[in-house]
Protein 1
Amino acid sequence: MATFEPVLTKGVGQLDLTDVAAYRKNGGFVALEKALKDMTPESIIAEVTASNLRGRGGAGFPTGKKWGFLPKDGRPRYLVCNCDEAEPGTFKDHMLLEQTPLQLIEGLILSAYAINAAHIVVYIRGEFLEGYRIFMRALSAAREAGYVGDNLLGSGYSADILVHRGAGAYICGEETAMLESIEGKRGEPRLKPPFPANAGLFGMPTVVNNVETLCCIPHILTRGAAWFASIGPPKSPGPKIISVSGQVQKPGNYEIPMGLPAGELLQDYAGGLLPGRTLKAIQPGGGSSAAIFAEDLHTGIDYDSLAAKQTMLGSGGFVVMDDTTCMVRASMTLVRFFEYESCGQCTPCREGGQWVHRILRRLEAGEGSDADLLVLNTINDTLTGTNLCPLGDSIMPFLLSVLRRFPQEFAEHVTLAGCPFDPARRMVAA
Amino acid sequence: MSADRPAASRRMVNVVIDGSALSVPEGTLVVEAAKLAGTSVPVYCYHPKMDPVGLCRICLVEIEKTPKLQIACATRVTEGMVVHTSSERVAQARNGVLEFLLLNHPLDCPICDKGGECDLQDFTMSYGPGLSRLTEPKLHKPKRVDLGPTIVLDEERCILCRRCTRFDDEIAQERNLVVIDRGHRSLIGTSDGGPYRSYFSGNTTEICPVGALTSKAYRFRARPWDLTHADSVCAQCSVGCNFRIDSRFGRIMRTFTRENLEIDDGWICDRGRYTFNYLYEPTRLRRPLMRRGDDLAECSLDDAAALCAEKLGPAARAGRVGVIGGGRLSDEEAFALQAFARQVLGTNNIDYRVHLQKFASPARFGARLIDIDDASLVLMFGAYTPEQAPILDLRLRRAVARHHTQLMYIGPYRPHLPVEAQYVEYTPGAIADLMMQLADTVHQGRTESGDGFVADIARRLAQAEKIIAVHNGRDPASVSALDRLLETLAGYNHRVGVLVVGSQGNARGAEAAGCVPNLGPGYAPCSGEAGMTTGEMLKAAADGALDALFIAGANPALTFADGALARRALENVPFLAVAEQVLTETAALADIVFPTASFAEKRGHVTNLEGRRQAFGQAVEPPVDVLSDAEIIALVARAMGHAESVSPQPAALLAGLVRAESAAERSVGDLLPRAKVDAVQPAAVEKVDATHRTFTIIPVPHLYSGGGAVAHDPGTAPMRPRPYAIVNPEDAARVGVVPGERLTLSGSGGSIDVEARVGPQAPVGVALVLADMPEAPANKLLDASGFGTATISKAASVPEQRSLERVSA
């Protein structure tokens, strides 16, 4: 069984961490008190940079480096927290928001202090109604306790947090679409450059950080960059929450050290596959990631190891599929999601998504042809890598990985004129 | 490239595009650099006048050392960049984008207006797949969406490039066109779900790269390859936008922008674009008319000319004749008209001014339209550019939205502007005083310390590096006070300039051609005593002191400020000859009406408000008996035995005009000695006391008002407003005015019926009445100052006619 002592999820499930006293007792606000008293913003940035913390939202960009990009031109700066978690198979920020909102608040204030942000905006996914309520209650409690607001802990530093709720668009998790949404506009990604560090929210220098990233900050400051950097591989260290779902014994959020082999996560944390099943495919990084397979179980769960397998850690949504799963159907479900969530700006994403979805739907319904398979095998060249934001590039990776791995399964949908996993068909075949 | 693109700096960088090396300014977009390199990159969403958005992805190009293909429309060149616009990878990407765009496209090219000039067709032929691999039915979207009074939208043809929504946002600043829904379900619509109403809507049909936005005026009318093009200039207002008239078999089918960066920046307004179908309406005059008792009956041109000669000759010899017009003629014709007055009729009684405008050009500090682009402050009074000079207003909107130009509007009522403006409520008669106070304040350097709004405005002026004043040349006192203010500012090294918005399309050209009582062509003082102004001629005619009036391209019955005087004059004058395209209120009172050719049916020059003389070509032939104004004038002159005095030929007339200008050592763009003006001064608007039912009447302009072409055009009919009067909510409550009801406004010159509107833009005690509407001529209520008073009562159509006095008593 796992021996890693949880950092971000310490006390979760045992203590009511939405309570200020309980959170303090759990080690909370130590970092904030220390930082406001003894640390300069520069030393915080230096510490975070030394920790090699990489953004937990999906792209894995070094957080300290991102903070360092802000131009020093005297313009007001914004810190925006991306809590629009909507990646299929990912539910870690959801948990952090509901279970440890004060940890997020502490991370926010620390980060805002470090980058000298004038305003903090937390963009909470619209569907996280309960999380929003919990967060708002925790925010009032923190404000009352003097951790948020004017002249924090007598330091002379002031910071307040504004909460903006989303309205149901996956694309608003893309940072520039999120900024547009906060500005009251249609939530659509912006053309980059300029990057948010230069022209972000309302045209001002802006840092957008993920919930989990921000939650790491207090721990880095309390226990030191060296401690953080020692967890897992040096280039992508730290604790990481993985949302395990699919056909496993114990689905759920698990905090692991980076670099843990996928097989250990599956066996030791998630309790392994259901009885009598064999592993077919795993999406290691949410709906946008390409699949890994049984022979890849030794692969470490971290940015670089997964990238070497032509997939990604992404948001940490670990979706396990066993031998009862139809790959056409699984692909169709995912593509339907991306097709539905496309903002419609870029032609390949907008048109390609609906086309691929219609082809998969037809294949699954037994109405596909060899011509359809040919399209699926070639469309990636024009669909992927030609869009303004990563959404369009998320349509194909899983489909392509399983199409290459299980070509016969796709072909069978054509030759059988139906889905081989369809129970009704199986009865006929028997 | 318009001025506000992210500045491509002067530093040159070396790039290689498709093997050809060239040096371009650093920061140039790759798509623009490719043009310089002689190659072209296909684009849909990119438009040189708008910010790059990088949506359509058709412009993907290969840039060495960059792994992914890059969009040429948003990537800027850097030193040493090597670009391939036609490599295998690029071809594949283009092919892919086109395949995607065509997936659900209806391919109804055979019935599509855009067919033949469609970027989707053209790029598909050049770069696209021959066949679609889509094997299922196409997705359908709404076709024939009635987007507004001018446009029909086909959502299926739309490729969602968003040029139209971005035009409405970035250029028009109106933010009414938007994308609705998401992904491939996206539709184009309006933000409030209502009709798309904009004075600039027609431009969206032009910039639409496919056949999605089609203009109602042109739908299913012609194919592009059947059209004959003629370069022309719009003379509907004084901006002088360049445009192209496209005709088929001698009939105008549509008009199209003809980019002139310094004037229109490639846009035209809907009035300019759509006002041409009146030429094909039964109301268009096609035969000369002669009065027979109460009626006008058709006659021959020769008979009409003979009668003119018979009546004008004796009147001229008696010195009891006047000529009105010129502001709606070409420069050549205005020259011909004054020559007719001075040489044939022997009188200086000629005046082009039939509105309140006194001067069409600034006496000093003449500016150009592009001066607005980088102005720090624009000071507007009298003129109201959103209605009177839309394309100038478009430039102003952009300056305010993009260049932090401050717009200060001084006037008697709150303007409706899509961009931020500072409004200074000021009664017109007091503007001269304000200018003088401002000049004093600036001059005495009291801008820092003073308080009150005069000091506030003076402070803004003092802080503005470049100041452009826009007015309508209506009030000589405020104009000379403005000159003093600007002179003071110029003395402090501010850059200053003035634009005078013409009340008629060619007001400035008519002024320069000598259609004023004291100045001849080239602003040369005329020989002999100065003649009568329009106001004096009308007064004389009303008093029986004139025997004949010749009016060409003017409708004083509707547009002259003192409407009662104008009507009395036109009814009383023993002989009235009018040259017009449609039977206007003035023409209806005439003894002889000559049908005249429109601008599309003749050639010549027209001078815009900057003083820029522009040539326009003939697009179509006029009907058989329809002559240009110059030909009519020449015909009448010949009938009077003066064939040598006036040529009907534009070239000869222009030569005469230019000769006169060089003799006077002045040309059309010069700043002129002042034309003689009527003695009337605009009175300060008196605020009536609160218990009274008498309102001060202030006429308000509208783009589609007027009694001429625009009143008879089926294309602009849906955009024409119904006559209305706006009163303040306070007044409405006080006298019981309900929005939407019919009101009768009774003044000294008669009464008019209008629709009641209630709004805060009307100051208390003031009724804002739509001007120049033939159904309800506001000038019946006005005096020579351009203002008036009227009593408001319920309209007679209300079953029980009672005045409000009695109701409330």
Protein 2
Amino acid sequence: MDIVALSRLQFALTALYHFLFVPLTLGLSLILVIMECVYVMTGRAIWRDMVKFWGTLFGINFAMGVATGITMEFQFGTNWAYYAHYVGDVFGAPLAIEGLMAFFLEATLVGLFFFGWNRLSKVAHLIVTAGVAIGSNFSALWILIANAWMQFPVGAKFNPDTMRMEVADFMAVLFNPVAQAKFVHTVAAGYVTGSMFVVSVSALYLLQKRFRPLALRSMTVAASFGLASALCVVVLGDESGYTASANQRMKIAAIEAMWDTEPAPASFTLVGLPDAPHHRTDDAVRIPWVLGLITTRSADQQVPGINDLVKLADRKIRNGLIAYGTLDKLRRDRGNAELRRELDAHVADLGYALLLKRYRPDIEHATDAEIARAAESTVPDVPVLFWSFRLMVACGFWFIALFGAAFYLSARRRLDRHRLFLYAALLSLPLPWLAAELGWVVAEYGRQPWVIEGVLPTFLGVSGTSAGNVLLSLIGFVVFYSGLAVADLYLLVKYIRLGPDATIGHPVAAPGLVSEVVA
Amino acid sequence: MSYELLRLVWWALLGILLIGFAIADGFDLGSAMLLPYVARNDLERRVVINAIGPFWEGNQVWFVLGGGAIFAAWPALYAASFSGFYLAMFLVLAALIFRPLSIVYRSKLPNPRWRSWWDWTLFVTGVVPSLVFGVAFGNLFLGVPFAFDGDLRFHADFSLFSLLTPFALLAGLVSVAMLALHGATWLSLKTESVIGHRARLAIPVAAAAFALLFVGSGLWLRALDGFSIMGTLPHDGPSNPELKTVVQEGGGWFANYKAQPLLWLAPVLALGGAAVASVWRTQRILAFIASALTCATTIATAGLALFPFLLPSSSQPNASLTVWDASSSKLTLEIMLGAVVILLPIVLVYTGWLYRVMRGPVKPDDVAHDPGAY
């Protein structure tokens, strides 16, 4: 494998792995805040013990999230050095602000969350817990502002003197519409994950007829929080689709395996068998109008198909080549104002010309056949996107159904009456993780061949280091991460099986007990 | 603020973030290094781990923030150093992955083999990053073989082992001794009886080792070729490291100290801090402040000698990254400065609160009876 494939594989593996821990941190931290609020307001000790028990599980997961997150931040430099140089002026800022505003907050206060129980007042400890949750969520916000810029690079301009993208309008980067939709969609997915974790573990206890008061209360909190979050995920997923349709039309067309532009409003392919080599979808079951309505929010705008988008890419590559040629002249004649005007007129498509670098270094001499190949390379992996998206959406609707049932049963105070429901809740435990990882595949694998949509092709972003180095570190990560996954799961399972009494070191308080009596 | 001044401010901020990391996370690394020596049984080890338990997580963010700030303010430096020092970075990363888990996971199971495995992991993940950071600094003085092509694509031509030159290893040992000293003053402050006593015995040893190695590397540095910029490089020009001429000359790294003798204050304070920490080691807070001063001024000593170089290139000196041609755009530096001015004081406030709430030594009894303790 070459350095590009190895670097991509390493990024995909480490990002997918990191994202096993992030959603649970996001969701569980807020559930801890809700539980501790009840404790502070009612003074009932069982709620404090609930926070301590779920907090221990939170801590095991949090350590892994922190450990694997550092890898992500440094990988941009180690494996994607040209990317870091090319867009660091824009992309680095949200990452640095994430550290300052969010990561510092959650990491500093998490120490107090575990060590502060006997040193802080009830309200002060609640503030600490809330600080951890706010820090985690702000962290997601800044990371997604950075990520959204990769999908929709607004507010930036190519500077020929420094040969890189530079910030032109920071507010545009900050208030990127893609970032807002992605943020709510992603954190809500985290809340669903946290809720499912609490609901599933509580269902296990109810099935085993152990720790009933703690399990019932935990499940009640998670059911209502989970239902609201599951609704949010689906609605904001739709919003993500709408914002993506404005700038990542190829991604939308690939998700839908829509080869040809249809008359508006386009139909939605429910299922089918996308055949990428022949640009067609076999045995498709289509629902009229739905796609056009979702993506354009209108009945008369067209959703362009893949074949038309490839033709558009061909035109953009030719336009980009003009910019590339001008840039070359400008490097030898830096003061020439006319060349700068010429560059400005074509620079928007410079990234498309860079797609040709996969086929030859001297791209100004590219043939028509190479331009056609480069245009064809803008089509992402259609079958993978098509199925990942459908599986993710199916999970989303299942979450609404399951949390809806849990919410109804908890309102009727019948949570522990239906074993079928409890088994369904228990067995659904892995699904939020599956959905979250699939969502990541749709968003990032669907962005290919771009690392920055329309600006920088992925294969150009890699470092000038040797492929052997990348292979060595990749093997290291696989070995370390596998070992750590075993340790992490072992600890989680062990503490769940031990149950809350052994975990917090004393029996969980009786439901009616007010904490001052214990103290 | 002019582009020139912004670049100077960001050079200083880079130093401040590195110093913040060395002072804050330095005592975690140092405590981990001293673990096998100061703690001889399970309860003693738990006391040491809980002495850094509430703090290490926030402290480590200084490093993450340092990385983020280099990315945002010095993207060329971020790209070149992280990809250039590839396997060294990987070693640091591996350490930073295993260290949190050895703190958090170790005492979650009673099995002695599990605990002993994580104890050794904690020790190694204390030594390795300390050594690697020092080796990296040493290599800055030697210059690193790298160049850029026409697209400003960075190409490095060295391996992990070519970084391990005698001078760089000496610099690595300076860093290990400095952080061991800092860890010892922290454990002296946060633990009592036998552990605190052993930590205080370690202080003069670490301080003497640091002083010897620090002075030794300074003397060696006189024999090395320094880098300097020929002619004039505009301080507010575009960040393109290909527009200047750089030469190497013997003793060049002392040019800044010759031009401004006041700078000698930095190395003098580094040695003074180590001396104060060992002479007044029973004044536990004073000793800790003194070792923190040593960390700060050691980094300052190196940074002031290197200025304006950030990453000199030994194979193509003209491609060296300097303060004047490796920064972000003026707008990005302004935005990031605003973010730091607003947010860093807030960080310091709640970090201060954490240390206030968790003040006082860690007692074996508390650790043994608190199910939340590590």
